[in-house]
Amino acid sequence: MAIAVCPGSFDPVTLGHVDVVTRAAALFDEVVVAVAVNPAKQGLFTVDERRELLSTALADVPNVRTDAFEGLVVDYCRSIGAATLVKGLRSSIDFGFEEPMAQMNRHQTGVDSVFLITDPRFSYVSSSLVKEVARGGGDVAAFLPPEVHRRLLERLG
């Protein structure tokens, strides 16, 4: 069984994330969307809330599950028997950031990385940008699953 991990903070999950995970699910037997736990960073949503929002957004994709991890993502991959990381790339800037990490991950543990080019509709969307625009009163509904949008507006008050 080919298991892939899509790691990230997902704070909050965007339609760009949903697109990448859905496409990855067509390539692998199982996709684990793994929320990175970073005790040094305070997210807008808790790790459990992010997992819940991911589960809701990906409910129609049967071979996807969520989890959380702390530490190195490749150690997490080994612990669940995953041989592949899947990352979405929005631009060459993302590739420049991800490529050295992919090389190091492969060197350290043999875990390979697969890069999926983001749908052009979401090529400029990031969780950070969505939060910033929403905090300023801008409309971000086009970039988020409906439940995530509702919860984001609720959280921002």
Automatic annotation (TrEMBL):
Which annotated residues bind substrate?
A: S9, K41, V73, K87
Q: Where is it mainly found?
A: cytoplasm
This chain belongs to the protein called Phosphopantetheine adenylyltransferase
Q: What class of enzyme is it?
A: transferase
Q: In which pathway does it act?
A: Cofactor biosynthesis; coenzyme A biosynthesis; CoA from (R)-pantothenate: step 4/5
Pfam hit, one: CTP_transf_like
Localization recorded for this chain is: Cytoplasm
Q: Which reaction does it catalyse?
A: (R)-4'-phosphopantetheine + ATP + H(+) = 3'-dephospho-CoA + diphosphate
Essential cofactor(s): Mg(2+)
Subunit text: Homohexamer.
User: Which EC numbers characterise this protein's activity in its record?
Assistant: 2.7.7.3
The alphabetical list of record keywords is:
ATP-binding, Coenzyme A biosynthesis, Cytoplasm, Magnesium, Nucleotide-binding, Nucleotidyltransferase, Transferase
Q: Which InterPro entries match?
A: Cyt_trans-like, PPAT, Rossmann-like_a/b/a_fold
Q: Which residues form the Cytidyltransferase-like domain?
A: 5-132
One GO location term (cellular component): cytoplasm
Give the GO molecular function terms: ATP binding; pantetheine-phosphate adenylyltransferase activity
* Residues the record lists as binding ATP: S9, F10, H17, G88, L89, R90, E98, F122, S123, Y124, V125, S126, S127, S128
Q: Any signal peptide, and if so, which residues?
A: none
Q: Which domain of life is it from?
A: Bacteria
Q: Does the keyword GTP-binding apply?
A: no
Biological role? Reversibly transfers an adenylyl group from ATP to 4'-phosphopantetheine, yielding dephospho-CoA (dPCoA) and pyrophosphate.
Organism of provenance: Actinomycetospora succinea
Q: Which family does it belong to?
A: Belongs to the bacterial CoaD family.
Q: Where is this site: Transition state stabilizer?
A: H17
Tell me, which GO biological process terms does this entry list?
Answer: coenzyme A biosynthetic process
